[in-house]
Amino acid sequence: MKWNLPSRSRRRAPAITALSAIAVTVVTAGVGVMAAPAAQADTGTTYYVSTSGIDSNSGTSATSPWASLAKVNATTFHPGDHLLFRAGDTWTGQLWPKGSGTSSAPITIGGYGSGNKPAFAGAGRVPDAVKLWNQQYWTITGIDASNYAGKSTSDLKDFRAIHIGGDNSQTLSGFVINGVRAHDVTGVDNWVGGSTSNNRPGINFQMGWDRAKNTGGIVFNTTVPNIAAPPGTPTILNDILIENSSVENTSWGGIVLKQYSGTSPGAKATGWGLRTSATDSRYSPFTNVTIQGNYIIQAGTAYGANGMLIDDVRNGLVQNNLVDRVGTSGIEFDYSDHVVAQHNEVTGTTVKAGGGDSNALDTDMGVTNAVVQYNYLHDNNVGYLSCACNTNTRFDTATVRYNVLANNRNTEILLDSVSGSVTNVYNNTVYNTAGTQMVAGSGPTTFTNNIFYTSVAHASMTTSGASYHNNLYGGNGPTIPSGDSHPVVGNPQFAHPTAGGTGTPATGPDLTAGLNWLIAAGSPAVRAGVAIANNGGLDYNGAAIPTVPDIGALQHH
Question: Mean pLDDT of successive 10-residue segments in the chain (557 residues)?
């Protein structure tokens, strides 16, 4: 699966640390002919595996393939090796090949031949259908992974489709997941807090940070050999790329990244993941993570929570993804630094499986230097959640700009932040057709140059901790916050505000639907904005921001 996304100036990556050069070979997105290994593969050996093969074969040609996962798992592979599985074949159990590549010669898992992706079905018999542990420099491309145990909640266990991590106190680098399908994982729903009185088969509360939210489609996490006596050095995962893949109906989550912190009963706290200040010396996040061009849907499971949970990441980029009908949060950041979410479409998020939230995008506890921009967030229960809600993390910082939020049912923006955090929300277009609250909750947040339009009469705008400056208010009896000394009131003159669409797995996020909220030349929003320093320079559609900007996510030209 690879989308041909529009080539626009706005699709520029932000100024964060670039990923290391990681070669991607044998890429296949769907049904079809598998690509031959690239020239770089000459540094290693290509191995072939087929269910009709024989383990006593050499395995080094398509006419003499190995057969079993046991044979593969007992083999240590070397830099530049390719491990290719025949298209259309299915293996039940766990794929865990051994060995590590190098930055110039990664080891590649892929497919050969024509037909459906080679499939690895955990079938509830193993925790992980595909696993790499204390290894590095691997590329996984063009495979199918699942781990489905059954329909009953009692079948929800410690399951994942693809699991990568370690516990060896090293920095492990160079992971590429490209063009895979991870689906139908019946993972247990373990939640950090809540009340144990609400526990039921497959859903558990008060599990703490380390034991919660570790199941799902694609999971990167770390642990320690002995929780009571952890080593002094953390395991850190570095240079992670997840792209052009689909994640479907996987619980707890779709894509999960989490650093170990030592929060389980009997564990000694390390502080590697749960930092207590912006400069906490113990904080040891994963580094250089890109998640792009993926399709995530949880519509087929009542237990599928987050589309993405990005915890404990420094220098993270989440872009050009379509997240559809998940539970709790479409894209959530926790305890992360210098992270960007841009050009994503998130739709249909609702409450599932004991989760308390139902937002499209959330900058949560312990997040600093976050930028949320150029996203289309529509038809969720909540559009954007600012949840710097822990008194131990009074240092959160986030910028939310040039997004289109439309038709979110409960509220468009929800604030749940403590004093000390800083969220700046400017030049967004907010279009409310369902909620009685446009902006709800409380928290230190500044709103500037935004369009707030409501067809619901007198939809409320919280002023608890929030300040408003130079916003446009329009629609059916819009509420004008008393603190906005320069409000603009009137019809913003949108182009086609009821015509918003939804992307598809074939075409990717429908970001062009956000253009339905373009304003006309005669709109009172035109040249009514105030200048904001370090504003990124481009609007939702890639147009340059003039010295005197328009109000809203889209400049009228």
Answer: 60 35 33 41 87 98 99 99 99 99 98 98 98 99 97 88 99 99 93 86 87 94 98 98 98 96 94 93 98 97 94 98 96 97 97 86 95 98 86 84 97 85 95 95 95 96 95 96 95 90 93 96 98 98 97 94
For the record, the structure tokens of 520 come out as: 């006309």
**Beta strands at 114-115 and 32-33: parallel, antiparallel or unpaired:** antiparallel
Report phi then psi at 382, rounded to 5: -130, 140
Instruction: Tell me how crowded residue 150 is: count the other CB atoms within 10 A of its CB.
Output: 12
The residue behind tokens 């790499």 is: 132
Q: Are the CB atoms for 257 and 312 separated by under 8 Å?
A: yes
pLDDT, position 8: 41
CB contact at 8 A, 143 and 117:
yes
Residue whose pair of structure tokens reads 């008060």 in the numeric block: 206
| Cα gap 298→296, rounded to integer Å | 7
Give DSSP secondary structure letters for 271-287: -SSS-SSTT-TT---EE
Can you spell out the DSSP letters for 231-266?
Answer: -SS--EEEEEEEES-EEEEEESEEEEEE-----STT
Among 149, 129, 267, 144, which residue's Cα sits nearest to residue 208?
267
Are 163 and 127 in contact by the 8 Å Cβ rule? The answer is yes
* Rounded CA separation 406/453 (Å): 10
Omega within 30 of 0 (cis) for the link into 91: no
Structure token pair of residue 521: 């030349």
134: left (phi over 0), alpha (psi -120 to 50) or beta: left
Give the model's pLDDT for residue 208: 84
- Tell me if the pTM is above 0.90: yes
> For the chain, which residues make up each domain, given as ranges?
358-556
Residue 196: Cβ-neighbour burial (10 angstroms; 0-12, 13-18, 19+): exposed
pLDDT at 181: 99
Report the phi/psi class of residue 528: left, alpha or beta, with left for phi > 0 and alpha for psi in -120 to 50: alpha
Q: How far apart are CA 274 and CA 281, in angstroms?
A: 11
The maximal CA–CA distance of the chain, rounded, in angstroms, is: 80
Which residues lie across from 257 on neighbouring strands?
220, 310
Nearest CA among 250, 231, 9 for reference residue 122: 250
Residues 6+ apart with CB under 8 A from 140: 108, 109, 110, 130, 162, 176, 177, 178, 180
Is the separation of the CB atoms in 245 and 192 below 8 Å?
no
CB 46 within 8 A of CB 7: no
Dihedral angle, C-alpha 358, 240, 283, 361, nearest 10 °: -20
- CA angle centred on 529, ends 527 and 533, rounded to 5°: 120
